[in-house]
């Protein structure tokens, strides 16, 4: 059995095309003879061949563990083979058998010896941090939930979780003192009414948001109604100006105001105490009448906030002012994420135009623009005052440096789209939910340690994985992810069947 470099180049080129990386495929096409190979054999090679061969290689590596060096059959390790054997584990097994091949002479890169020593130190540190057997941790389902489409842990009380369903009901679950079982359930019910925008008899919960103190929660539904409840389940107020599904709710720091926006690009500032609408924005032009401007809003001070505007712009407003204080231009698509860092006073934004931008106060131009994702970015967060992490529907998670204006680390998922991602409250882990139902938790604490040791290297490193959870039901997409207050549990909402609480 053999494979030529020409054949391998062709499989890589096909993979790049199939995963939407057209520019990378074109670059490889210019430097190789893949077009000649394509003309001869493309009808014989099915879609996904490269991934299929890698999967078979993983299976072969796993089967090698059953055979000793003398050809004898080893006893099967039931605990090991009960886990999902993945690429990372296969590479670790292979690395133990074969020494690393280093480039020499004219094939060596500049300063390769120094970088190699640095990378070896990083690898040694990573090996120490991983579990004793070198395998990625398989996460366990702590508790199975009823069917949910959204979930939010209380930001103060680690025992309280709110779950939104398709039947216009939010269920607030309270764990017992041991955090092992559900102690009580409270139902927060909206009227089951027709949705004016969808034209059907449904009123699905579309948005949940706890107040910063954790003593109140706002729930939004498809027909645009908003309701404010306390933790005992008592209705505090009803807000009725929206007429379409709510997509974002954001409280200010002292919990006296909150902003909401819907799919028709209407944004409203509310007084949480009196229930009155203080300001009403309809930043729509002819193009955005049928397209979303964005699905997030953000406070940058207790009386200033940012909302998406037409054509990818960001509009900065102050309370009681009808005209914007400023307009931030740069994005070319709908805004998917807005997050303000109160320590460095910078705003992070992500967009459907595949880019992230960082904005300094007092400037209308972004100080950083990060390019690399090939599809819409659906999650982005500040890790610290310098680094940000992002997840995209292209299946990749990337870590960027504001100070260095560079990509620091990356993780790819073979083109499986990411549908939800959240940074833990203590910012030590990052949970990512995929279209195939898998939840991967990345170890940010270990990543920061590795980045500190690899400062001289300009090559992005791989984001280390803490653990993986795989839903057993096929085609069960992850809808939403939420971290508990003490960052030891994750709640997951799926497209089919019940949700899950995963224990770390």
Automatic annotation (TrEMBL):
Keyword Nucleus in annotation: yes
- Pinpoint the residue ranges of every WD repeat in the record: 198-232, 239-280, 328-359, 370-410
| Gene Ontology MF term list | transcription corepressor activity
Q: Which residues are listed as membrane-spanning?
A: none
What sequence ranges are listed for the domain Anaphase-promoting complex subunit 4-like WD40?
199-254
Q: Which GO terms describe its biological process?
A: regulation of transcription by RNA polymerase II
Q: Does the keyword Nucleus apply?
A: yes
Keyword list (alphabetical) reads: Nucleus, Repeat, WD repeat
Tell me the InterPro entries matching this sequence.
Answer: Apc4-like_WD40_dom, Ebi-like, LisH, Quinoprotein_ADH-like_sf, WD40/YVTN_repeat-like_dom_sf, WD40_repeat_CS, WD40_rpt
Q: Where in the cell is it found?
A: Nucleus
Q: Which Pfam families match?
A: ANAPC4_WD40, LisH, WD40
| Assigned GO CC terms | Set3 complex
Return the Gene3D superfamilies for the record. 1.20.960.30, YVTN repeat-like/Quinoprotein amine dehydrogenase
Please list where the region (Disordered) is annotated.
Answer: 109-129
Entry protein name: Anaphase-promoting complex subunit 4-like WD40 domain-containing protein
* Organism annotation: Zygosaccharomyces mellis
């Amino acid at each position: 059995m053999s494979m030529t470099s020409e054949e391998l180049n062709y499989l890589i080129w096909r993979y790049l095309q199939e995963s939407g990386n057209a520019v990378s495929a074109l670059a490889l096409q210019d430097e190789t003879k893949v077009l000649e190979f394509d003309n001869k054999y493309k009808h014989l090679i099915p879609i996904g061949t490269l991934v299929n061969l890698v999967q078979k290689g993983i299976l072969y590596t796993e089967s090698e563990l059953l055979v000793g060096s003398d050809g004898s059959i080893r006893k099967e390790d039931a605990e090991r083979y009960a886990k999902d054997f993945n690429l990372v584990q296969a590479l670790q097994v292979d690395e133990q058998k074969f020494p690393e091949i280093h480039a020499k002479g004219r094939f060596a890169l500049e300063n390769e010896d120094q970088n190699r020593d640095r990378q070896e130190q990083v690898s040694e540190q990573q090996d120490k941090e991983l579990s004793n057997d070198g395998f990625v941790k398989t996460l366990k389902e702590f508790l199975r939930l009823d069917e949910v489409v959204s979930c939010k842990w209380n930001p103060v009380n680690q025992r309280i979780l709110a779950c939104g369903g398709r039947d216009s009901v939010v269920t607030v679950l309270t764990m017992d003192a041991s955090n092992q079982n559900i102690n009580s359930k409270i139902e927060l019910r909206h009227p089951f009414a027709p949705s004016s925008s969808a034209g059907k008899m449904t009123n699905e919960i579309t948005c949940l948001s706890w107040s910063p103190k954790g003593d109140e929660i706002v729930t939004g539904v498809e027909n645009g109604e908003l309701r404010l409840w306390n933790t005992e389940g008592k209705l505090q107020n009803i807000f009725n100006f929206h007429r379409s599904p709510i997509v974002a709710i954001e409280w200010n720091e002292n919990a006296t105001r909150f902003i909401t926006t819907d799919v028709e690009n209407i944004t409203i500032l509310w007084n949480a105490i009196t229930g009155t609408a203080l300001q009403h924005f309809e930043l729509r032009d002819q193009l955005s009448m049928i397209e979303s401007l964005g699905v997030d809003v953000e406070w940058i001070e207790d009386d200033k906030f940012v909302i998406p505007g037409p054509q990818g712009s960001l509009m900065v407003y102050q309370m009681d002012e009808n005209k914007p204080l400023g307009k931030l231009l740069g994005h070319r698509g709908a805004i998917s994420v807005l997050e303000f860092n109160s320590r460095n006073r910078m705003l992070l934004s992500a967009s459907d135009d595949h880019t992230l931008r960082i904005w300094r106060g007092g400037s209308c131009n972004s100080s950083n623009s990060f390019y690399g994702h090939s599809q819409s970015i659906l999650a982005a967060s500040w890790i610290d005052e310098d680094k940000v992490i992002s997840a995209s529907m292209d299946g990749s998670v990337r870590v960027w440096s504001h100070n260095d204006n560079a990509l620091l680390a990356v993780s790819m998922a073979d083109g499986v789209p990411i549908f939800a991602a959240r940074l833990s409250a203590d910012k030590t882990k990052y949970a990512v939910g995929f279209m195939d139902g898998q939840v991967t938790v990345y170890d940010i604490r270990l990543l920061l340690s590795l980045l500190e040791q690899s400062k001289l290297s300009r090559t992005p490193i791989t984001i280390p994985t803490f653990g993986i959870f795989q839903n057993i039901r096929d085609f069960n997409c992850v809808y939403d992810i939420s971290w508990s207050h003490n960052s030891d549990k994750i709640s997951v909402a799926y497209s089919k069947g019940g949700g899950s609480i995963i224990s770390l």
